[in-house]
């Protein structure tokens, strides 16, 4: 598996993020969907990485800089063909390594509260994330859960 920096110019990454956004819209009301919009211009404070095997996209994730010491994990997504193969765990480990290299002391994320998000929450818990109150621009939302990891 090769994890490399991507942008919103790669059609395969755009397709995967569009699929992610559609799933989030199916599982949560519009005001509770916080995934990256692949049709919007890429924000300069967001870096996207994708995992590849040969020419096949396995998954992606992004890291948004909140400040010089804090970041947010965004839009973790594994291709349907590669679920339950450890792709998300490897991408998350890569994002956390990058966060440490940037000098972040804390990383946050928002995920869904529905049963469909249980596997994601368990992944984050296995990597040491704890639940926390809303952070940054987020507010209390019955469809969202917030997590943090002190690095």
Question: How would you describe the overall organization of this protein?
Answer:
With 151 residues, this protein is α+β, with helices and mostly antiparallel strands. The chain has three helices and seven strands; from the N terminus they run βαβββαβαββ. The protein has a seven-stranded mixed beta sheet with strand order 1-2-3-4-5-7-6, with helices on both faces. Strand 4, helix 2 and strand 5 form a beta-alpha-beta unit. 30% of the residues are buried. The model has no long low-confidence stretch (mean pLDDT 93).
Keywords:
alpha+beta, 7-stranded mixed beta sheet, Aminopeptidase
Count the helices. How many?
A: 3
Structural class given helices, strands, pairing?
alpha+beta
In the CATH hierarchy, the third-tier topology is known as Aminopeptidase
What distance separates the N and C termini? 25 Å
What is the strand tally? 7
Stretches where pLDDT falls below 50 for ≥5 residues?
none
CATH class: Alpha Beta
What spatial form do the alpha-carbon principal axes imply?
globular
| Rg over C-alpha atoms, rounded to the nearest angstrom | 14 Å
The assigned CATH architecture is: 3-Layer(aba) Sandwich
State the helicity in percent bands: 25-40%
Placed side by side, the strands forming the largest sheet appear as 1-2-3-4-5-7-6
Mean pLDDT: 93
């Amino acid at each position: 598996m090769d994890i490399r920096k991507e942008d919103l110019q790669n059609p395969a990454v755009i397709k995967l993020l569009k699929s992610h956004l559609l799933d989030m819209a199916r599982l949560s009301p519009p005001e509770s969907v916080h995934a990256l919009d692949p049709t919007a211009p890429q924000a300069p404070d967001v870096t996207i990485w994708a995992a590849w095997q040969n020419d096949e996209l396995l998954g992606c994730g992004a890291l948004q800089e909140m400040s010089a010491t804090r970041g947010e994990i965004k839009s973790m997504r594994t291709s349907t063909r590669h679920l339950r193969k450890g792709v998300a765990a490897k991408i998350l480990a890569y994002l956390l390594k990058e966060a440490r290299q940037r000098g972040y002391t804390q990383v946050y994320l928002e995920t869904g509260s529905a049963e469909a998000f249980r596997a994601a929450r368990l992944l984050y818990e296995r990597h040491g994330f704890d639940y926390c109150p809303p952070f940054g621009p987020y507010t209390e939302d019955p469809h969202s859960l917030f997590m943090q990891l002190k690095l």
